[in-house]
Amino acid sequence: MTQINVQPGIMEIALYQGGQSALAGVTEVVKLSSNENPYGPSEATKAAFAQSGLALHRYPGTDHAGLRAAIAEVQGLDAERIVCGVGSDEVLQFVTQSFAGPGDEIIYTEHGFSMYPILAHACGATPVKVAEKERVVDVNAILAACNAKTRIVFIANPGNPTATMLAADEVARLADGLPSGALLVLDGAYAEFVEGYDGGAALVEARSNVIMTRTFSKIYGLGGLRIGWGYAPKEIIDVLNRVRQPFNLSDVQLQTAEAAVRDQEFVRWCRSENTRNGAWLSEALRAAGVEVDESFTNFILARFASPEEADACDEALKAEGILVRKVGGYGLPNCLRITIGDERACRRVAHTVKQFKGVDA
Q: Model-level pTM?
């Protein structure tokens, strides 16, 4: 048989595991394992999706001009510095493909999104895991890990699965302290859940080494369509567009996302509901004896006394038809990541956890 050589790093990739979505024998599952918007997309977004289906025989545009213009208008950005991808994951892939390779290093944090080391291996670079401090990105630790081989530093802010957030002055200190030739990538998948937060846009404007990414999968309720975007200096965007496939997004994705980003009233309502339900659920979990950090996202990281207790609580939730996410693979074996659902879902979670902990429900 002919020997087929695989590119460096590919066979080091551990396949990404998504959140569980079904339970055997259960027809009505409360899925709180993938940080989806429990309310789905807005009515205006659904109408745009239906309309876009009338021209499925047509190729989409290659420059994403309409969507980039809408994002720029709503976010107060420069449309020429926006690149769009199949989810923000594809934009992150453009970055690693363009700026790192064999012999280079890509830094991520110990509880960071599991796609970061996957993307590093995919381009042949070496992923370097750096410790966090009480589940928060540690700037000093990252800077200490940097060297002449460092090409990219990934941080999610707010973090996944920690739900914590690094202060703006610390993010700026990180950007300023990176070695020459290294890029800071700010993954803002959950940025919209933080009132007044720009996801790092101002830092991108002020620096030449910062890239910001965002997604339509979370607060916009479009996880099933896979649409994301990035914002960076024009020179970097020019590079990313050279590796982007010309028809990477369909007209269905482009038109639906444009309607979604323009419906900011819906975004504000979703953020308000998420904040209200998240605060209630956090307090309910604390009252049951479960430790919870302040969440800046649409999920809560619930910390139990041991991995065994976390596993047992996960089974108790499953017995009630509730799916959450075990995060042992993120270095948090004593934790469960619980998406903040609607009010009914939050109350079901709280009731089940209190029963499990032997607290009056």
A: 0.93
